[in-house]
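We modelled the chain as a single entity of 305 amino acids. Its sequence is:
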Amino acid sequence: MAQLTANELKQVYPKLSALWGVVIGYQVITILLIAFFDFNYFHSPDFLISRSIIIIFLFLRFVLKTDINQKFGILSDTMLVYLSLAFFYGETAHFNTFLFPKIDPFLVRCDEWLFGFQPSIWFSAKFNQAIFSELMFLGYFSYYIMPFIAFLIIWKYKRDFFEEFSFLVLSADFVYYIIFILLPAEGPQYFFSYPLCDIDAKGPFGAIIKLVQHLGEAPTAAFPSSHVGVMVIILTLLFKEHKTLFKIFVPFSVTILFSTVYIKAHYFVDVLAGLLSGPVILLINKYLFIKIKSLQKNTIYVNRN
């Protein structure tokens, strides 16, 4: 493998997706938390494997001077970060009691004040028909594939916008992860006792979600609903850049609003918080994207001079 000089590193850096600025920033934040509150976690396989994958990937992005790397580099950046979200989401369950206690009792009281009952318990009990239940699970499942579809469509038809689009969508997840650490909440599926926390799977999509929850869910990330917040961001961007995909996504997104409460992943106030926080996070990330791209352009200018 060819040895990289400092000048070569400076030439490659501007070609990386701006998304890495947020990913690395998130790593700095979590590493500081680990250093102060759970130093032994540095030695855990979870910590070492996930960060090693990132380091190896970035190393290869720097050293592989191939046409494929040049053409598909930012797409590969996006897909690796997208796949890594599952791990970093689950990791917030380890971090989210470092600073503050869980706020589930407060969220339960908010729902009780708004409705006089618990929507996450009442909804699935009242509408327990097999077809309706499967529709709710389908809506929740759609969240896992809609960002992936959006990335591919934007890459194919709006390639000049792809880096910004992927940055704005995926950076939102990392902002939400920080919120989950600062405002820890586990959600109805963990907070309520059995059988109130449970819901039967009545079809294939219900079974899929049950499997996903068994393998990847953790008592974390209830407030606000990142599913709702990220979908607000995706719809906002698609409305301007790809109205056909926007129209296709709208009914699924509306279903997500209801399904997150129906399957007991969220309290109702989590959904409201997701709707309100999405546009705010989008504005913050637009500012970050401009700043990061400005730094990259300055690096190019310095190299040329």
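As a brief sanity check on the tokenised model: The chain has a mean pLDDT of 90. The chain has one domain: 6-304.
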